[in-house]
Amino acid sequence: MVDQKSCLIVGCGDIGTRLAKLMFSKGFKVWGVRRNTDLLPSDINPVTSDIASERTFLNWPVCDYVVYSVAASERSDEGYRQAYVKGLANLLSWMEKTKQNTRRLLYVSSSRVYHQQEDEWVTEASETLPTGLGLRLLEAEQLLNSTDIPTTAVRFSGIYGPGREYLLKQVRAGYGIVGANDPYTNRIHQDDCAGILAYLIEQDSLGVQLAECYNGVDNHPAKLSEVTSWLATQLNTIPTLPLSRSTGSSKRCSNQRLLDLGYQFKYPDYKAGYQEIINKMT
Q: What's the domain of life for this entry (predicted)?
């Protein structure tokens, strides 16, 4: 009889819960860690904990795979330090003290670690000299180098989907005019976030050698004006107001390493992902 593989998802919010459901469907035994486990589906084993403050981890299971997918409680340096740096350090300390035979730790990071902003293509090998909150994300990634546990970071960018419809709602309300600063944007549907993480676990369990880092973005970086114009057409609206939020960053993140590994996107570009959301709105 084949032993049932197990997965511990630390930070079982939206993406973590989607991943948990995928792993459960693949026959994994799944535990989900979050502060309020009442929100977890019944097929996920709950672990109530605050990773940034709790150090005992007495009720935490030892699993084949661990996924660290937390969200900061606030968009501040201290909020990011608590969630990403301190939380991950606590987790690594516990894993090392318990001498777990974890096959791999997956860390959910962000394209914020890239500093490029002149429309450059960036790959996982590109230089990372972030400023602001990106510094904490990179600091957390660097913690992975201090452990003997095999690790992989996944740098997501522009996560959207049901419940993450900020840009769509902006355009629908008449916003959408983009000024002279028309940056390239990178996106990933939340279902593909979970899909990528599940695929990496699956490949590792099959003995495939994983890289230390992957860019988690879809196939089509696009100018912000291109995206808003397309959304306006689909929504039958004419933007008359400037977007209320824009970014000074403009880069094109390559997902070629992920494609070479064999991952097939459920939503390969923003049109595929947003069209489904729009269809359900009408």
A: Bacteria
Contact 200, 210 (CB under 8 A): yes
Q: Which residues pair with 66 in a beta bridge?
A: 8, 105
Average pLDDT, the chain: 92
Strands laid side by side in the 65-68 sheet: 45-48, 29-34, 6-10, 65-68, 104-110, 151-156, 213-216
Pairing of strands 6-10, 151-156: unpaired
How many CB atoms sit inside 10 A of residue 109's CB? 25
pLDDT means per 10 residues in the chain (282 residues)?
84 94 95 87 88 74 94 92 93 84 95 95 97 95 93 97 94 92 95 98 97 98 96 95 76 98 98 95 74
**Span 57-93, pLDDT tens digits:** 777 898 999 999 999 889 999 999 999 999 999 999 8
187 with 96: CB under 8 angstroms?
Answer: no
d(CA 28, CA 23): 5
Distance of alpha carbon 204 from alpha carbon 197, whole angstroms:
11
Q: Are 81 and 136 in contact (CB under 8 A)?
A: yes
Please name each of the domains of the chain with its CATH number.
Answer: 6-160+188-219+252-266 (3.40.50.720)
Measured distance CA(19)–CA(141) in Å, rounded: 21
Distance between CA atoms of 64 and 8, rounded to whole angstroms? 8
| Partners of 241 in beta bridges | 175
Residue 70 main-chain phi, psi, to 5 deg = -95, 165
Structure tokens given for 116: 């490029």
